Structure formats: C-alpha cells, structure tokens
Amino acid sequence: MKKTLVALAALAATGATLAQSSVTVYGRLDLGMSSVDTTLGTNPATDAFSLAGEQDRWTGSRLGFRGSEDLGGGLRAGFTYEIGINADRNTPAGISPTDNARTRLANLSLSGSFGTFVVGTFMNAFDTARGFSPANNTIPGGQFTQWQAAAGSERFDGRSQNSFAYVAPAVNGFTFSFGGGSEESGTALKFTGYTLNLNFTRGPLAAQFAFGDLDMDFPVVADMQNIALGVRYNFGPVVASFLYEDSQRDVAGLRTFDAQSWEIGARFPMGALAPYITFGQGERNTDDIDGWQIGTTYNLSARTWIYAAVGEAQRESATGINVRKESGYAIGLVHTF
C-alpha cells in the first residue's frame, strides 16, 4: 500500500529550511527460485540454480521516493529517487556505477501546459517499447529483442543517465519526447547521444517508437544507432503484441555490429490468471537467433502476485554451429507497497 508522508527537513549546514511537501514512499520485492542452463559452443552446459533466494527474476526489487510541489500558475516541480535493493541479502543492489543498479532513478522535473522537462537518471523510450512484450527479460527467451546483443555497449539501455528530456503533452492520443546526454568529466567513457520517442495510445491500441544515436570518443571512436518499435492491441480475450529492434555499431568507420530481431506475443487474461506465450527470431551479424517463452502470472491481490515461466534462447552461426544457448525457468512472488 502506497503511503503518503509529510516531510519537513532542515539544512543545518547552511541554516536554510525546506518547505513542506507531499512525498510518496513506494517499493517492490521479488523473491523466488530459478534455474538457467547456459551452453557456449561445444562446452558442457553450466547451471545457475537458486532456491528460495533468487531475486529480481520478474521485476527489480526497489525502494523509492517521489513527490511534487505546486509552484503556482500551472507550474509543478517533481522529483523521483529510487534505489535497487538485494532482497535476499539486505544490501543495496550493485557494486559499481557501471551496473546501473545502485541508483535506479534520480531526477527532477518541471511540468506545465507546455509539457514536462526532466533531468537526471530516468527510464527512456527503449524501456517502454520493450515493455510491450508480455514476457520477462531476465528469464531465457523473454523480451527477445534484448537478447540480440552481447552487451549493453551494443544497444541502448532502458535507463538514461546524466541526461535531460522533454515530454510533450498528449494530443489526440499522440505524444513525443526528445532527450540527450553526455559523459561526466573524469569518467572512463566519453560519449554524447540523443533519443527520440513517438507514442500513440487510443482505445485498445498502443504503439511506441524509439530512436537513439550515440557517439563515443573514448576508449574507441564509435557510433551506435538503435531503433525499437512496440505495438500492442487488446482484443479482449487476447492481448497481442509485436516488437522489433535494430542495432548497429560502427568503430572507426567500420561496421562491427549489426543485429535485427522481432518478437510476437499473446497474453490471455482470465481474471486473476494471465498466461502468455512469445516467440522471436533475428540475426546478429552473420549468426541466427531465436527464442521463446511461456509463462503466467496470478494476482493474489491488487499488490501481490505469483509468476512462473519457462523459456529458451539460442544463437547459431551461419553454418549451424551453436554459439550460445540458454534455457531455464523461474517461479516467484512479487509484492508492491
């Protein structure tokens, strides 16, 4: 259950005080069990198994704070601060800034009739487009378009850091956003980039398109482009979805990475029960990739649900030799507050 607190803080070091503001405290915990077998080439499969201690197989465990203040004249300021937590270890998630997990979200926003400006760390359009899939990206075969790349350096992550964005107000179901970001002084990576997002939602139809371009100067000179498209239509007894993603990377003017993939999915809402199935195919450079996932969620209440899923993703060379194969399952319990 979300709880609203009245927070009053004082900056003792400066003697300045903060005005009262309404703050919402929220969170989510995900715990369960899972098993994933990974086969690389002709090597024997390795098994990663966790019993009653596996976390974040369906969603990231987190603790967050968000609030807003009416500035008058139709202007409103807002903030969000969210951290990932290791629910089975009672420690903050992440051991370094590169894993993008210790601080999930940290941003300030200013909104009005003109739209919304946001700065900091926030979710971007690629996360929204991939989220049209009913499957889960941490279980083999889920949100298949993400599996096309070997690392985040070859595709856009769903979270923008050290960035800004403008989100236009919706008009007849249409809205768009534009954002950009760059490296911070003194960091190992040196890059600048931007993202563009188009969104349409009306009745049973929803669609999201995202485009991103990233120029890197160090440690290598590289240019990365990524597009993602997500479409979902609610037919009533069936919610159908389609995802497409295209990722390219050029290093010193030479194409070093080129991947395209698609995924179709269907969810079948049956009251508290919502089974689903997805299937995807694509190409990664000269390799072929495919994957599938079958699973279900069951709502125990408005804030608590259980999940179970099984899936597989495989990548083969042009000659049919296995490059990488993952198969596994996960069962868990999620609670939000």
Automatic annotation (TrEMBL):
It comes from Serpentinimonas maccroryi. It is found in: Cell outer membrane. One of its GO terms (biological process) is monoatomic ion transport. This is Outer membrane protein porin. Homotrimer. One of its GO terms (cellular component) is cell outer membrane. Keywords: Cell outer membrane, Ion transport, Membrane, Porin, Signal, Transmembrane, Transmembrane beta strand, Transport. Residues 1-19 form the signal peptide. GO terms for molecular function: porin activity. The keyword Membrane applies. Residues 7-314 form the Porin domain. InterPro entries: Gram-neg_bact_OMP (IPR050298), Gram_neg_porin_domain (IPR033900), Porin_dom_sf (IPR023614), Porin_Neis (IPR002299). It is a multi-pass membrane protein.
